[in-house]
UniProtKB/TrEMBL annotation:
It comes from the Bacteria. InterPro entries: Nitroreductase-like, Nitroreductase/BluB. Residues 326-338 have a biased composition (Polar residues). This is Acg family FMN-binding oxidoreductase. Signal peptide: none annotated. Residues 313-338 are annotated as: Disordered.
Length: 338
């Protein structure tokens, strides 16, 4: 990017800052938003924020990496929609494991309609933990979501009926294990009350007012929310396992990118997505999921896919941290003037 004019450079700086800001709308476990972006003259750097890692639930940083991966994909989509091509290097510095990715802009590129449509879904995407409608997810929609995952070099396995019951049993077992752990419950309470950092966590407005009737139980947050729950069920939902060939930090980051790609695609198609992370938080149930994959891959997350109940208004979006706390523009001081 050495041949840029000053005007082009300022335009790129604004685009990078906007992409980092858009990445803040990404989903994260318990809405911890465990990321920090540094805007550079020619790209972005993504850092993990260990202070917002779930020390009890996620001691290895598996879900932290998945969460940051969703933000990485969001930033990629935002840049593409603004007409910039970019190259991504994941875990670029072995001496700095908190530097998860570096995005370098390689030049202007005509935005595709897909990128523009996905970018429009960045703010629209949300999590609705209530039962879905009785309308099954169209096969063509499932195929499109699977393709979005495959484009990120991962796979989404849609479970058969018997496997859904096995997933339900694993989810129940994971809930039992976590319910008996007082330290886990304390950490969960921290992120579902207003005691966490401002703009993070899961407020009562996004948590169901009571346990929903579902085949696969959702997470018990240990408290009732205020989100009204209708009389529906999830019998028409599809369940899938997001998986890959290895189980290392780089793969967890890629899993987050694939999750974002799947979720934005689903949002564009009118499909509701709920990630089910409890079954990968407990070692024994994570092994159960691997058996559902015939030991051919490593599960990173289970997903519920469904068509939202049209009689229920969409839940509010979870809060977000102030941009100034998650996007560092000190290396490009003119960014704030754009």
């Amino acid at each position: 990017m050495t041949d840029e004019t000053p005007e082009t450079s300022r335009s790129l700086t604004a685009a990078l800052t906007e992409a980092a800001t858009a990445a803040g709308y990404a989903p994260s476990v318990h809405n911890t938003q465990p990321w920090r972006w540094r805007v550079q003259p020619d790209g972005l750097e993504l850092y993990a924020v260990r202070d917002r890692q779930l020390a009890v639930t996620d001691p290895d940083g598996r879900l932290l990496a998945v969460s940051c991966g969703t933000g990485l994909h969001h930033a990629r989509v935002a840049l593409a929609a603004q007409g910039w091509a970019a190259r991504v290097t994941r875990l670029p510095d072995p001496a700095d494991p908190d530097l998860l990715a570096r995005i370098v802009v390689t030049g202007p590129s005509a935005p595709t309609s897909d990128a523009v449509e996905l970018a429009a879904c960045l703010r629209e995407r949300h999590t609705d933990r209530r039962p879905v409608s009785t309308e099954p997810v169209p096969t063509r929609s499932l195929d499109a979501i699977r393709k979005a995952v495959a484009d990120e070099d991962l796979q989404l396995h849609i479970l058969g009926a018997n496997q859904v019951y096995e997933l339900a049993a694993a989810a129940s077992r994971a809930a039992e294990v976590e319910a008996k752990d007082p330290v886990f419950q304390q950490e969960l309470q921290y992120w579902t009350t207003r005691t966490g950092p401002a703009g993070t966590g899961l407020p009562a407005e996004v948590l169901p007012a009571h346990a929903a009737e579902t085949t696969v139980p959702g997470r018990d947050f240990g408290r009732e929310g205020t989100l009204p729950v209708g009389p529906g069920h999830d019998r028409a939902a599809a369940y899938g396992l997001l998986y890959g060939d290895e189980d290392e930090p780089k793969n967890w980051l890629r899993a987050g990118e694939a999750l974002s790609a799947a979720w934005l695609t689903a949002t564009r198609l009118g499909v509701s997505v709920v990630p089910l992370s409890a079954v990968v938080e407990v070692v024994s149930t994570r092994h159960t999921l691997r058996r559902l994959l015939a030991d051919l891959g490593y599960p990173y997350l289970a997903l519920r896919l469904g068509i939202a109940d049209p009689a229920q208004p969409a839940p509010p979006h979870t809060p977000r941290m102030p941009v100034t706390q998650v996007v560092d523009t000190s290396a490009v001081p003119t960014a704030g003037t754009q």
